[in-house]
Specification:
The structure is a homodimer. Chain A is α/β, with parallel strands linked by helices. Chain A has helices at about 5-15, 25-35, 70-80, 85-95, 135-150, 165-180, 185, 195-210, 220-225, 230-240, 250-265, 280-290, 305-325, 330; strands spanning about 50-55, 95-105, 115, 155-165, 245-250, 270-275. In chain A, helix 6 packs across helix 8 and helix 10 packs across helix 11.
Chain lengths: ~325, ~325
C-alpha cells in the first residue's frame, strides 16, 4: 500500500466535519482504500463484481455432508439463471455476478456471466491422498488471477464468491495447516451437519493434516488438502492486489484461500477487506491470522459471496465520505476547544 | 406485526435455494419486514429517507462537552449544503436526507431538504430543572410523527438521524430512567470527552435522575431529562409504525428515544431495526432493553444517522432475497438427504 496516500487520508479524516475517529472502523477502510489506489481520495470502489468460483470435492465420498455432490452443478445453473441469494443481493446492491467453473464435476451449459475455466472435474479425495497435482493447483490459481484482471478492468471492487459441496472440509484443513489450529477447533458444521457427520469431518481433516507432516510450502499444502475454488480464490486475491483494486473476502472458503495467498505473497492481502465473519469457526481463526477485522457479523453461513457483497456498500460509503465531506474550514464549523 | 405474513416469510426462507438458517440475522430481518408490511414478500424497503432531527441543550452550560453550542446550527447548515458524512453516505447509498430543526438555539436559513419545525430554541438545563414543559415535549413528539408520515408517503424505509451538541448527556439520562442502569454505566464519552468532563457528565445525569424520584411516566421523563430531538425521534418511531414502514435506528440518541416510544406504545418498536451499536455504552443498554440486535458494529460514534444509513442496504437486500430467490423446487436443486 502507498503510505503517503494513506497518511493523506488519515489527515483528511481528521479535518472532516465530524469528531476525530468517530467513523470507527470505516476510517481504517477509507485509509486502506487510499493506500491501495495510491491516491487520496481514492477512486470510488464501484461497481462491485462478485466472482463465484465453483468446484467439487472428492472428499464428498467420506460422508461429510448430507448434500448430494450434484448440487454444486445445480447451483451453478441457478447462479446463471439469476435465482440464488447472491444474485438477489447483487441486483439490489448494483453489483455484477460472474460464475466461474474452475473444478465442477460435470460441465455446465454456456450462459451469460458463466465462465468455463475448468481445470479438473472435481478434486481427488483429500482424506486418501493429494486433492490435486501441483500443476493443477497452479493452473487454478492462474484462473483466479486472470478473472481478477478481467474484472478489474471495469470494476472498482472485487468480491469473492464460492460454491462447492463439502468445501468447508477443505477450508478447515487449510486453516489448520496455515494457522496451526487443531482440527476440532477449526472444523465447523458448514451447511449445518449433525454431530456424527461433524465427527467424521474432524477425523478427515486430522488424516489429511497428518499426511502434510508439518510441511508448509503453500502450493503443496493447497494441492494436498485444498479445493480448486480455494486455489482460484487465492489467485483472485493476488490478481486484485496486482490490479490495485480492493477485494472483499466472503466467508471461511475465501478466508482459507487468503491464507494461501498470504503465504505466497504477504503484501497481497494488504489490499483485502474481510466482508464478514461467518458462523464457521475456522473463519475467525483465519481472519485473526491474517490480521483482518470483519466488517459484518450477521451469523451468515451461506457462502456464494453473500456476506462480502453485503459489506461492499460500506466500503463504497467510506470512500465516498473521504471524497465528499467538507472540512471544518471549508464548512465554517467551529472545532472543539 | 402481521403474524401470518411473518410465518409465510419463514416458510419461504426455508424453501429458498440455500441451507436453512444460512442467512443468519437477515432471515429475522426479512421476516420482520413481512410482518410490518403485512405481506410476503414485503415491498422493497426503498428508497430510504433519513430525517436528521436537530436540537440544542441547556445542559451545555454544565461544561459536559468541549464543543461550542453553535456547532449544532453550523452542522444544520452543513447538512443543508450537503457537506456532512450523512450526506456523503446518502448520496452513495441512494437515500434522501431531510434536516428538521425541532429545537436548535438559533434559526437557520431556508434550504432544500430543511424543515423548520422548531418547538423551542433549545432546552433548559436538565441538571437544574425540567428540560422542557410537557406541552413542548408533546409538540416535539408530534413533529416526529408528522415527519414520519410525510416521508413514508414516498419512501420504503425511514432512518433516524440526529444532531445536537451535548445530546449524549440527555440520552444517558433517558437510558438510566427507562432501563434502571446506573449513570456511570450508561454515560459515555460522546464525541470523545476527557476524564474530568466525563465525571461532570456522570454527576449531571445523577442530579437529573434524583429529581425524577423514580417516576416513570414516559412523557414526564422525556420532558424532565430529554431533548427536543429525542422527543421528535420518539414520535418518528411511532409514526413509522403507524405507516407500517420499517424504521432503522441509529445510535444512542435514537436508542434512548426508542425507549420513550416503547414506554408510550410497546408495539411500535416491533417495526424498528437497530442499524448498529455505537461506541457509547448507553446504546447497548438501550438495545438490550428493547430486545433489538444491532445489524452493524463498526465502533461508530458520529450520529447524524450515519450508522443506520449504512445498515439500510442490508435491510433492502434481505427483502430482495425474500422476493427474488428461487426455491429448491423451482430451480431444480436437490435438497439434502
Amino acid at each position: 500500500r502507498d503510505h503517503a496516500a494513506e497518511h493523506a487520508a488519515r489527515e483528511r479524516l481528521d479535518r472532516m466535519t465530524k469528531p476525530p475517529g468517530s467513523l470507527g472502523v470505516l476510517e481504517d477502510v477509507a485509509a486502506q482504500l487510499a493506500g491501495t489506489a495510491g491516491a487520496c481520495p481514492p477512486p470510488l470502489p464501484v461497481p462491485a463484481a462478485v466472482a463465484v468460483f465453483a468446484g467439487d470435492h472428492g472428499v464428498h465420498a467420506q460422508g461429510v455432508t448430507p448434500w448430494p455432490q450434484e448440487v454444486t452443478a445445480q447451483m451453478v445453473a441457478n447462479f446463471a439463471a439469476g435465482g440464488a441469494v447472491v444474485n438477489a443481493f447483487a441486483a439490489q446492491l448494483g453489483a455484477d455476478v460472474v460464475v466461474v467453473d474452475v473444478g465442477v464435476a460435470s460441465p455446465s451449459a454456456p450462459a451469460p456471466g458463466f465462465l468455463d475455466r475448468n481445470v479438473r472435474r472435481g478434486t481427488a479425495d483429500l482424506a486418501e491422498g493429494p486433492a490435486m497435482t501441483l500443476d493443477e493447483a497452479r493452473r487454478a490459481v492462474e484462473v483466479g488471477i486472470g478473472v481478477a484482471a478481467e474484472l478489474a478492468a471495469d470494476h472498482g471492487c472485487l468480491v469473492t464468491g464460492d460454491m462447492g459441496i463439502t468445501n468447508t472440509t477443505a477450508s478447515a484443513a487449510l486453516v489448520c495447516a496455515f494457522t496451526g489450529a487443531a482440527p476440532a477447533e477449526a472444523t465447523g458444521r458448514g451447511t449445518g451437519v449433525d454431530d456424527p457427520t461433524l465427527a467424521r469431518k474432524v477425523a478427515v481433516v486430522e488424516r489429511a493434516l497428518a499426511r502434510l507432516d508439518g510441511g508448509r510450502d503453500p502450493l503443496t499444502v493447497l494441492a494436498e488438502v485444498g479445493g480448486l475454488e480455494h486455489a482460484a480464490l487465492a489467485g483472485f486475491v493476488l490478481g486484485a492486489a496486482a490490479a490495485r483494486v480492493p477485494v472483499v473476502l466472503d466467508g471461511v472458503i475465501a478466508g482459507s484461500a487468503a491464507l494461501v495467498a498470504a503465504a505466497l505473497c504477504p503484501a497481497a492481502v494488504e489490499h483485502a477487506l474481510a466482508g464478514h465473519v461467518s458462523a464457521e469457526p475456522g473463519h475467525a481463526l483465519a481472519l485473526r491470522h491474517l490480521g483482518l477485522r470483519p466488517l459484518l457479523g450477521l451469523d451468515l453461513r451461506l457462502g456464494e459471496g453473500t456476506g462480502a457483497l453485503l459489506a461492499s456498500p460500506l466500503v463504497a460509503a467510506a470512500a465516498r465520505a473521504l471524497a465528499d465531506v467538507a472540512t471544518f474550514d471549508s464548512a465554517g464549523v467551529t472545532e472543539k476547544s
